[in-house]
């Protein structure tokens, strides 16, 4: 008998350098078991950090990711010259801009699940945006909910 289920799964992302990265395959490989058998549902991904972000965007042309990173760097200035434009600067000139970018983009995405697969559009992928210069291990909490077969 089919029924609605909910499960949570802590995921780890590999360390990525600063920039925008396509992580769809990282996510789906870690969730192949939990997604299997979900007839109709929702995957919610929550990034447990405040200096990076998750987004859904273009999955084909890598220039889109480069342009996104460049554009965000233009929108949110980094205080590399040490002018004191941010009060919160003890962790480096990239830290406060990373918090701002994280707030602009967001820490979570929700994606429909159809017949055990993510129902992304043809050109959509899951992006991880790292806003800090140093490489960090990032954690994502995945919630899978839906009607099982």
Structure description:
With 149 residues, the chain is of the alpha+beta class. Helix content is 24%, strand content 42%. The strands form two sheets. It has a five-stranded antiparallel beta sheet, covered by helices on one side. Strands 2-7-4 form a three-stranded antiparallel beta sheet, with helices on both faces. The longest helix is centred in the middle third of the chain and has 14 residues, at 62-75. The relative contact order is 0.38. The mean pLDDT is 95.
In the predicted model, the low-confidence regions spanning at least 5 consecutive residues are none
In total, the number of strands is 8
Mean pLDDT comes to 95
Structural class: alpha+beta
Q: What is the 3D form? A: elongated
The percentage of residues in β strands lies in 35-45%
Descriptive keywords:
149 residues, five-stranded antiparallel β-sheet, alpha+beta, 4 helices
Topology:
Elements: E1 4-16, E2 19-22, H1 24-30, H2 32-35, E3 38-47, E4 52-58, H3 62-75, H4 95-105, E5 108-114, E6 117-118, E7 124-130, E8 136-148
Antiparallel strand pairs: 1-8, 2-7, 3-5, 3-8, 4-7, 5-6
What would you say about this model in short?
The protein is 24% helix and 42% strand.
């Amino acid at each position: 008998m089919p029924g609605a289920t909910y499960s949570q799964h802590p995921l780890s992302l590999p360390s990525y350098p600063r920039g925008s990265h396509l992580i769809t395959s990282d996510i789906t490989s870690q969730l192949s078991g939990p997604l299997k058998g979900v007839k109709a549902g929702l995957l919610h991904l929550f990034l447990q950090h405040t200096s990076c972000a998750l987004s859904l965007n273009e999955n084909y042309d890598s220039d889109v990711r480069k342009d996104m990173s460049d554009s965000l760097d233009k929108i949110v200035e980094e205080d590399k010259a040490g002018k004191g434009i941010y009060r919160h600067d003890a962790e480096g000139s990239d830290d406060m801009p990373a918090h701002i970018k994280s707030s602009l983009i967001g820490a979570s995405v929700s994606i429909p699940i159809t017949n055990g697969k993510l129902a992304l559009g043809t050109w959509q992928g899951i992006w991880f945006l790292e806003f800090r210069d140093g490489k960090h291990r990032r954690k994502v909490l995945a919630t899978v909910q839906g009607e099982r077969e």
